[in-house]
Amino acid sequence: MNISKIDLNLLIYLDVLLREKNVTRAAGQLNITQPAMSNGLKRLRNLFNDPILVRTSDGMVPTERARALGPAIRKILLELEEALQGEEEFNEQNSQRVFRIMASDYAASTLIPKLLKSINEIAPSVTIDIMTPSDVTFHDVEEGKIDMAINRFDELPQSFHQKTIWRDSFSCLLSADNPVVAKFNLNAYLASKHVWVSKTGFGVGVGMDPKDVQKLGWVDEALARLGKKRDINVFTRNYHVAMQLAFEADLIATLPTKAALLHKNDANYTILKPPFDIPDIELKMIWSPLLHHDASHIWFRKQVIAAAKLAVKG
What we know:
Layout: H1 9-20, H2 23-30, H3 34-48, E1 53-56, E2 59-62, H4 64-85, E3 98-103, H5 105-110, H6 112-122, E4 127-131, H7 138-142, E5 148-151, E6 161-168, E7 170-175, H8 186-191, E8 193-197, H9 218-225, E9 231-236, H10 239-248, E10 252-256, H11 257-260, E11 269-272, E12 281-287, H12 295-313
Parallel strand pairs: 3-4, 3-5, 8-9, 8-10
Antiparallel strand pairs: 1-2, 5-12, 6-12, 7-10, 7-11
């Protein structure tokens, strides 16, 4: 195969088709007509002497040959995008750039206030658009539609850039009037009712099963290693809801320490160390290779790290 005779647009078509697995959606992504995309698929089939996508009962599925080509094609296109972006300076004082961040409410409430304060001082016309984990997908980040995602991640695509913002321990947040405060030990913890809170990764959440310890996360896995289980009274994906329930319903909220410390000066609450060991968590920021060399994005990443250092200091 002579590369000089290949229409490089076909590689873009192939990349989008493998992600979307649908000719109509792929055409929409590239802003071309459906017949044009169908013709592109036909040309790809002739080029590689392979069907590329085959129709099954589950919809269009990539062939083994197409799946093997996918990572290499994606890598080539990402490197080409980076090379063509060029170098430019970012004038933050005059910029009206909108930075879109996916952040859990834990990250938004502990990090974003410090970030916004510093940005307002040096870049008064820059805007931050905070989105929730349910608003976006890995695909959105990969394409650069979202500038950055800030959260705890179990698994990440290898192509993403990432940086740890901080590590955080866990604390128990209780109403100051909760009777368990007087003698807070493991037995008292297990005899109490709890509010579970977590939302990691991307996409729409699913209902929780109190019996499925592996999906309950760090706190319950730590208890399971001791052969113990807590009595979860309510599940929520919102840290502020969990903190409010700790006060109004006499529940124990076991959550990252920086979230608990939002109430450190509130006499209605008590913050206690968990009566068992829970591994620390890592808050990370991730972004697309397409944005890695963008001058405005480089500037923004520096602001996030600087804000994180301020947040860590308290």
